[in-house]
């Protein structure tokens, strides 16, 4: 079966996911497109999916007969309404992060999916599909004994003027928030944020860098440096220290060059290149599950927990230095 997919939001990542479905993956085709800005949808149609229908409203795309499953790639604040509409239509839905911009919004999605009775939603936490993180998880599970600490960093070369301090959590740290729950099979119980000396490269409305300290239910301590004006490249670091040894996330493959008395490796600068294969694998997973009328991988529950944990981290930014508790409601059986 070829899964007929509609894409809502044809900006940067919506276009890239359309390219993936059309040119990289098997088993699916893009049959419908929608964007708040119709010119954006028409441009993607012209470049990548000439047979797709273009809909002024995302809700009309979800209801369309030529759409079996939906990719929600629009601005974060619009995700909740589209995901709820997809669940109401009984159509599998891949939603880019964040699942919703509030924990209450994410809870409404969990409640709707539980009422539906089976999984329909996959959240775009693609790091769980990254080969490096998968190798790291295998080593953490089998080789280094009980994990005790994680030291991590999420560095971007630069960010635009509209990137403000809370986005370091909602836009950036949210990937670490999700991937460490999965890596450690654990949940957070508290968060704290401290601000080092500010980089002179950071604009006025962003405190940069930041250090987020998370504690898990098993007592594991995690420190994450978020540094979004690091200048030199896009750099994701993760080291897990266990009772018997430690393990590092592998570096992306790169040529080591020796020249003029120097040894050099190139460093990526764009997050799209760093995780290009994991985006392919996550969408392949979505297509396979959607062909069976369901969803797998990161769930609405994971999106909800990420939203609760993110809110605590933003509160910890606002009350810098204070330890903010994180408590989660009971997990519905659908997500066991
Ligand atoms: P973007 O601004 O390039 O694209 C967003 C698109 O959504 C725009 O074309 C805009 O016109 C459209 N849009 C806005 N409101 C809409 C509405 N109500 N209905 C339909 N379309 C609407 O942004 P982007 O970088 O493509 O990010 C989109 C989403 O993907 C965000 O939630 C972002 O956090 C997420 N994202 C995830 C990753 C990842 O690594 N998983 C990377 C980048 C972005
Ligand atoms: C971006 O929004 C993403 O989601 C990327 O995956 C992330 O790593 C990057 O730093 C963010 O800006």
TrEMBL record:
Residues 142-321 form the Gfo/Idh/MocA-like oxidoreductase C-terminal domain. The keyword 4Fe-4S does not apply. InterPro entries: Gfo-Idh-MocA_inositol_DH, Gfo/Idh/MocA-like_OxRdtase_C, Gfo/Idh/MocA-like_OxRdtase_N, MI/DCI_dehydrogenase, NAD(P)-bd_dom_sf. GO terms for biological process: inositol catabolic process. Its EC number is 1.1.1.18. Homotetramer. This is Inositol 2-dehydrogenase. GO terms for molecular function: inositol 2-dehydrogenase (NAD+) activity; nucleotide binding. It catalyses: myo-inositol + NAD(+) = scyllo-inosose + NADH + H(+). Residues 3-125 form the Gfo/Idh/MocA-like oxidoreductase N-terminal domain. The keyword Cell inner membrane does not apply. Gene3D superfamilies: Dihydrodipicolinate Reductase, domain 2, NAD(P)-binding Rossmann-like Domain. Keywords: NAD, Oxidoreductase. Belongs to the Gfo/Idh/MocA family. It comes from the Bacteria. Involved in the oxidation of myo-inositol (MI) to 2-keto-myo-inositol (2KMI or 2-inosose). Signal peptide: none annotated.
């Amino acid at each position: 079966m070829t899964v007929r997919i509609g894409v809502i939001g044809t900006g940067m990542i919506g276009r890239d996911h359309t390219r993936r479905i059309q040119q990289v993956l098997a088993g699916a085709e893009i049959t419908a497109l929608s964007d708040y800005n119709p010119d954006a949808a028409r441009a993607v149609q012209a470049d990548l999916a000439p047979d797709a229908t273009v809909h002024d409203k995302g809700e009309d795309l979800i209801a369309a007969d030529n759409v079996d499953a939906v990719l929600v790639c629009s601005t974060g604040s619009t995700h909740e309404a589209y995901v709820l509409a997809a669940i109401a239509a009984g159509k599998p839905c891949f939603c880019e992060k964040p699942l919703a911009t509030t924990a209450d919004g994410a809870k409404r999605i969990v409640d709707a999916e539980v009422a539906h009775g089976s999984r329909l939603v996959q959240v775009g936490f693609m790091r769980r599909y990254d080969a490096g993180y998968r190798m790291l998880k295998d080593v953490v599970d089998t080789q280094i004994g009980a994990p005790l600490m994680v030291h991590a960093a999420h560095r971007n070369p630069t960010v635009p003027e509209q990137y403000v301090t809370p986005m370091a959590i909602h836009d950036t740290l949210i990937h670490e928030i999700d991937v460490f729950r999965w890596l450690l099979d654990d949940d957070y119980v508290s968060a704290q944020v401290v601000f080092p000396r500010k980089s002179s490269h950071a604009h006025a409305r962003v405190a940069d860098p930041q250090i987020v300290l998370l504690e898990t239910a098993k007592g594991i301590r995690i420190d994450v440096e978020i540094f979004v004006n690091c200048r030199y490249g896009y750099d994701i670091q993760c080291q897990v220290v266990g009772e018997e040894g430690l393990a590092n996330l592998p570096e992306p493959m790169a040529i080591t060059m020796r020249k003029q008395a120097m040894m050099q490796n190139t460093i990526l600068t764009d997050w799209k290149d760093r995780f290009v294969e994991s985006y392919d694998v996550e969408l392949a997973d979505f297509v396979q599950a959607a062909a069976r009328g369901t969803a797998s991988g990161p769930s609405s529950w994971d999106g909800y927990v990420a939203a609760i944990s993110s809110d605590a981290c933003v509160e910890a930014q606002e009350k810098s230095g204070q330890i903010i508790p994180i408590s989660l409601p009971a997990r519905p059986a659908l997500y066991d």
